[in-house]
Specification:
9 helices, 3 domains, single chain, mainly alpha
């Protein structure tokens, strides 16, 4: 017995996509793979940007404050802590205003103990990064070493030497 593959209604897929449904939503409701829906749309529509909201969602007044601090030469880490904004957001605001990218400053050492304490209090890594003025990925790597899933913290070359 041979099973025949049912065809996808391209007109319906295009109509739904133009009405605002995502490729994955269309695929789920029509019970096709998202790849099949994409192939049905390819060449028939202009695809929307993927990845969420483009641009920054900060209010205009906040953008101007961040931009003024950036132009005044305040370190990005300090701007992050003051305005509770990520480094990518700060650099995007500066780029939108036509500011050139500043050269990186001296390497900043993060306080591993403070990061561990904030994690123990329930703070998520992204919020910790903003509070300590660090990069989200770096904070996550530090947490993997300071608070491994089991056992004692691992030794790491970036770990600060004990005081004293």
């Amino acid at each position: 017995m041979s099973t025949r593959r049912r065809g996808i209604n391209r007109d319906a897929v295009v109509r739904r996509y133009n009405d605002g449904e995502s490729i994955r939503q269309i695929a789920a409701t029509l019970e096709f793979s998202h790849a099949a829906v994409y192939r049905a749309l390819k060449g028939r529509v202009t695809f929307r940007p993927v990845g969420g909201v483009t641009g920054t969602r900060a209010p205009e007044e906040r953008k101007q404050e961040i931009l003024a601090a950036y132009r005044a030469g305040v370190p990005v880490q300090e701007i992050m802590a003051t305005y509770h904004a990520g480094d990518i957001t700060i650099r995007a605001i500066a780029a939108e205003a036509g500011e050139s990218k500043r050269p990186k400053g001296p390497r900043r050492r993060l306080d591993w103990e403070q990061i561990g304490q904030l994690w123990d209090r329930g703070w998520p890594p992204d919020a910790i990064a903003i509070l300590v003025g660090g990069n989200q990925g770096h904070v996550r790597r530090i947490l993997q070493k300071v608070r491994p899933p089991e056992g004692e913290p691992e030794e790491c070359e970036d770990e600060p030497a004990p005081a004293g």
